[in-house]
Amino acid sequence: KLQFLYFIATTMDLYKNASLSLLTDMYQLTMGQGYWKLGKHADDSVFQMYFRKTPFKGTYAISCGLENALQYLEAFKFTESDQEYLRSQKAADGSPLFDEGYISYLGSMELDVKVYAVTEGDLVFANEPLLRVEGPLIQCQLLETPLLTIIGFQTLVATKANRVCRAATVGDVLEFGLRRAQGIDGGVSMSRAAYIGGCAATSNVLAGKLYNIPVKGTHSHSWVMSFPDEAEAFSAFAKTAPNNCILLVDTYDTYQGIDKAVEVGLEMKKASSSNLLGIRLDSGDLAELSIAARKKLDAAGLTEAKIVASDDLDEHRITDLISRGAKIDMWGVGTRIAACFDQPALGCVYKLAAIRKDPTCKWNYTMKAATACPSKATIPGILEVMRHRDDKGVIVSDELYDRELGPSTEGTKVHVLVWDGAKRCYNEPNTSVLREKALKSLESYKPDTHAEGFQVSVEKKLLERRAAILEDIMNKSKA
């Protein structure tokens, strides 16, 4: 019980004022000990985090999760409790897995890294760094797993939500995914990312409180089923929630449910105290049912009543329903956003790209050759992105270049320094501002005109250096 309460407490802090340094894979800590034993732990290093393929067979992604990542960095420390746990870990022969000196080193360690990032709500494309982390090798290594977890997941959800919202050319999208999310933090961070991606509101009350997201919700089938009949249930809900009355009409027979909702709406209108806000359809042929419902509502003079639809919606179903003339005013989307149903992971990677003993030495640019799978080969260097726009502000191209070699043409740098040394140097706006930023980002990019995928070019000198490094790797492997 105490462990579960601790988990809840740390989760609800959302990475603030709680020790989450053990939120990592064990091999990060074992590699860290190896670096420490060999005296490599303080070597200057550069790691880059990116995804190889744009999610959902699309052409773009929406960067998200940076604020939570910065909160994580602010609270990063190995507490006495963390150190005691590491002391308890055993190697294969039963001896302590970690040296006492290494554990003490972790306990006294303070972050001294630089983090450059694509800020939340901005567009990012395949093979462009979402983050670049520079600093001591051991510290950059230990940050890999949490950064992948925090930013990879939220970027995926924000992108999915944005795709759904773009499809909903008529009406707002409401995110109803908490009950289908991956645990407590998965639910809270999912709701945050879905809102930034474009959803107008969430059903998640805690996320609403923590991130100032509008919260929506009325009743479920349980309400209807708790009464002797549907008409009584509707009438009771109208009396108990007269200013928040949207009636779920598909518990039994949907057409009869619509008729009973209309009757309640007329009773409310006659009483002049409030109006029926709408009905919700949660099953069946939503296009056919919404058209029939709209006719019934309008014929009764309830023209202001909205029709909300749910039932495993995503961008594809919404597009289909609109093309069929559905009369739907709001879309409740849960599982398909919360679980990113058609691609449940972004596939982010975090790779070492440069290393040197200290600032007096030249950089050694490192590359994963991946000859068995060339698509996994990396681009060595300290990578940045230059974005180019036309005279109307529309993004026309991105160029990936090395900081030391420079870009081929001028444009707008995508990455921002967000963490310097031991503290943040960038504050993300509130979630409402980030949501507007994400929606405006798509105004400067036309995904429908980039059917083959947005092409990110690689600067010529960087390509040549990569080819030379790859050739050197292959020659050494043959020796």
β-strand amount? 15-25%
Whole-angstrom Rg: 26 Å
Number of helices: 17
**Biggest beta sheet summary:** 7 strands, antiparallel
Folded structure, characterized:
The chain is α/β, with parallel strands linked by helices and 479 residues long. It is 41% helix and 17% strand. It contains 17 helices and 19 strands. A hairpin with a 5-residue loop joins strand 14 (383-389) and strand 15. Helix 8 (183-197) crosses helix 16 (431-443). The termini are far apart.
Overview in brief:
With 479 residues, the chain is of the alpha/beta class. The protein is built from 17 helices and 19 strands.
List the defining traits of the structure above.
479 residues; alpha/beta; six-stranded parallel sheet; 41% helix
Topology overview:
Blueprint: H1 2-12, H2 26-38, E1 44-51, E2 61-62, H3 66-74, H4 80-87, H5 100-108, E3 113-117, E4 123-124, E5 131-136, H6 137-142, H7 144-167, E6 172-175, H8 183-197, E7 201-202, H9 205-211, H10 221-225, H11 230-240, E8 246-248, H12 254-271, E9 278-281, H13 286-299, E10 306-309, H14 315-323, E11 330-333, H15 335-338, E12 348-356, E13 364-365, E14 383-389, E15 395-402, E16 412-413, E17 416-421, E18 423-424, H16 431-443, E19 456-458, H17 460-478
Parallel strand pairs: 6-7, 6-11, 8-9, 9-10, 10-11, 15-19
Antiparallel strand pairs: 1-5, 1-12, 2-4, 3-5, 3-17, 12-13, 14-15, 14-16, 17-18
Helix pairs in contact: 3-7, 4-5, 7-8, 7-14, 8-9, 8-16, 11-12, 12-13
